[in-house]
Amino acid sequence: MSVISVPEGFNEDELYVDLRSIFGLPLLLKCEGFNFAGSIKLKAAAEMVEAAEQEGILRPGSVLIESSSGNLGVALSMIAASKGYQFLCVTDSRCNLSTRRLMEALGSQVHIVAEPDPVGGFLGARIDYVRATCASDDRYVWLNQYTNPGNWRAHYRRTGPAIASQFPELDVLFVGAGTTGTLMGCARYFREWHRPVRIVAVDAVGSVTFGGAPGRRMLPGLGMSIRPPLLDETYVDEVVRVEEADTVRACHRLARRGFLFGGSTGTVVSGAMSWLARNDTRELTAVAIAPDLGERYLDTVYQTNWLQDLYGEDVLSSVAADRRFPADVTWAAESVTGSLVR
Fold this sequence. Notes:
Radius of gyration: 19 Å
CATH topology of the largest domain: Rossmann fold
CATH class of the largest domain: Alpha Beta
């Protein structure tokens, strides 16, 4: 029995879904959405807030401010409410409406950036607003998830060891790349482990994280319009890039079997299946990290009109045609095989 007094005191860390029966390939999905913030971002938020308090940066009367596409904003909203801080989340028009409402329900303010920066995109515009706000009032404290070592340290201390304890013979780990906090924390942990683990980063097409061409990205979460300062490519063995339409299809395949996951999880699963379909999976132990659940995507990923307007009438045709999703389904994610070598 778990008895807690603060919402960040609970996180389910031992739940995995075996996806072989759905996709026909061996993949265990670590579910990180079962906490009061609903995503893996709770770990990084708690780590960064605690460090800021210990360093005296964050104190009574401080106002937290952060740029977030959604999930970190919810996690910080929850922790701010628990600890008695005010919080201002700076997001943009791609943030799901339900996510904005959830932050406001927790007592936070939400500022929506409507126009992207010509060079840095929406992320650049959000960061510019955060910097201007901090310069105008010294009560504001920016944790800066993009450069804060607490972002990756949370996963070096918690996520990596949790996976290792369950799978001592782990061969390959698939991790989505956003700020790259989860990716870098897990990769650093497994670099020091007793056996080699192949680290495969999953990115969105249109993200510039690993040098790809910038492009339209409508789903919040994974991908960046600027190179993540936390990223060290020497820790990454391969990169798989996923089209948003394939993210949507993966989400719907999972949903048709009763598992409602978010867009970031759909991207990771699609990328992992693409990699597994091209490699020898005999005796392979493969784990992917599912950052989020799907309830916050009901108006986007799971809304037919929204999907068809953006990705075309046939975006879900393969899902509708095959409700059992056999092993010969084609995975079309773009792979950068062997481009990053330890």
